[in-house]
Specification:
It is a single chain. Strands 1-2-4-5-6-3 form a six-stranded antiparallel sheet. It has about 140 residues and is α+β, with helices and mostly antiparallel strands. It has a single domain, classed as Hotdog Thioesterase (Thiol Ester Dehydrase, Chain A). It contains two helices and six strands; from the N terminus they run αββαββββ. About 15% of the residues lie in helices and about 40% in strands. A hairpin with a 3-residue loop joins strand 4 and strand 5. It starts with 19 loop residues before the first helix and ends in an 8-residue tail after the last strand. The radius of gyration is 16 Å and the shape is globular.
């Protein structure tokens, strides 16, 4: 009998109802420990000048990297972001932006990702790096 490596296990799709992921309109298009992708509409995620808000780009980046790190962590562990940095290269005024989180390192206690966000013309909007700590999963929440 052989063990199934975590990367080959079925992706666990996070519950998004009532979360920031839902509010931002983020849609996950591919989920995996090595690579996770998703999209986000510009509309509704802009600053007062009508440009994509830099914080929205950060939310997309952290979402994609955290989902990927959770896949790496496996079913009995959890991933929590400990550092995020984002360089904003340009902005978008409309349409959809796409993010791709690619693993830089996948260790026992840390996972780091580079996340590239592009506009509909394939131009780089932002580049981010996220480091997540891998922890034992917390016990289920109890009712109050």
């Amino acid at each position: 009998m052989t063990d199934t490596p975590p990367a080959a296990a079925a992706a666990v799709v996070p519950e998004v109802a009532g979360t920031l992921i839902e509010r931002m309109g983020i849609e996950l298009t591919a989920i995996g420990a090595e690579r996770t992708t998703g999209t986000m509409p510009v509309a509704g995620n802009t600053q007062p000048y009508g440009l994509l808000h830099g914080g929205a780009s950060a939310v997309l980046a952290e979402t994609l990297g955290s989902v990927a790190a959770t896949q790496h962590a496996g079913p009995t562990r959890a991933a929590v972001g400990v550092e995020l940095n984002v360089s904003h290269h340009r902005s978008a005024r409309d349409g959809v932006v796409t993010g791709e989180a690619v693993a830089l390192t996948l260790g026992r206690t840390l996972a780091s990702y580079e996340i590239v966000i592009t506009d509909e013309d394939g131009r780089r909007v932002a580049t981010a790096r996220l480091t997540c700590m891998i922890l034992d999963a917390p016990p289920p929440a109890r009712g109050r």
